[in-house]
Design goal:
Layout lengths: L1 H25 L14 E4 L2 E4 L4 E7 L2 E6 L5 H11 L5 E4 L2 E5 L5 H38 L5 H34 L2
Antiparallel strand pairs: 1-2, 3-4, 4-6, 5-6
Helix pairs in contact: 1-3, 1-4, 3-4
C-alpha cells in the first residue's frame, strides 16, 4: 500500500520534471530553437491548435526559425499567434513561409530570461512540493483508517521526502545549465 503511494508519487514527480524540461526548451539561449514556437496556440478556423500540428518548423540557420504551414490559409493565423505571444520576435511572411529572425540577445534580455527561468524553477519546485503534500496526506489518511501503522506512515513520509529532495535537485541542476547557456555570449 505504501509502495503504491510512493510509486504514484514518483510518477507524478517525473511528469512535473518533464513539463519543466519542456518549458526549458522554450527559453532561448544563444541560438534559435523550434521549441520557442512549436507549442504556440493558433486560432485555426475557430479551433485552438498547437503550431507544430499546423506547420513544419525548422532552424535553417543558427539565428532563424522557418515555419512552413501545411495549409497556406493558416499563414495569417500563425503570424497573428506569434505577434500576440509576445516572444519578442516579429514574423516575416514571404509567400507561404514565415521566418523568425532571432535578434542577438542583449545583456538586459539575458537578465530578463534568467529571471523568467528562476520563476519557472520555483513553479516546478512548488509542483513537486504539492505532490509531496498530497502523498503525505494519503499516508496520514491510511494511518487514521488503521490500514497502516504509525511506523509505516513515518517510513513512507521519509521515502517521499527523499524523492522530493531528489527531484528538486534535478530541477536545480537543469536550471543552472540553462542559466549558463542563456548567459553565454
Amino acid at each position: 500500500m505504501i509502495n503504491d503511494i510512493i510509486n504514484e508519487t514518483r510518477q507524478k514527480m517525473k511528469a512535473s520534471l518533464h513539463v519543466f524540461e519542456e518549458d526549458l526548451h522554450g527559453i532561448r539561449g544563444g541560438r534559435a530553437s523550434t521549441a520557442l514556437v512549436d507549442r504556440l496556440i493558433v486560432d485555426y478556423y475557430g479551433q485552438e491548435t498547437e503550431l507544430r500540428q499546423l506547420a513544419n518548423i525548422s532552424t535553417p540557420e543558427a539565428m532563424q526559425i522557418l515555419i512552413r504551414p501545411y495549409d497556406k490559409g493558416a499563414v495569417k493565423a500563425i503570424e497573428k499567434a506569434i505577434q500576440t505571444a509576445n516572444i519578442g520576435i516579429n514574423p516575416n511572411v514571404d509567400g507561404d513561409n514565415i521566418r523568425l529572425n532571432m535578434p542577438p540577445l542583449t545583456r538586459e534580455r539575458r537578465i530578463e530570461l534568467v529571471k523568467f527561468l528562476h520563476k519557472r524553477m520555483e513553479e516546478a519546485r512548488v509542483a513537486i512540493r504539492n505532490i509531496r503534500r498530497s502523498a503525505n496526506d494519503d499516508l496520514r489518511d491510511f494511518e487514521k483508517e488503521k490500514l497502516i501503522s504509525e511506523d509505516e506512515m513515518e517510513r513512507g513520509e521519509q521515502e517521499i521526502q527523499k524523492l522530493t529532495d531528489q527531484f528538486i535537485a534535478q530541477i536545480e541542476e537543469l536550471g543552472k545549465l540553462k542559466e549558463k547557456e542563456i548567459m553565454e555570449v
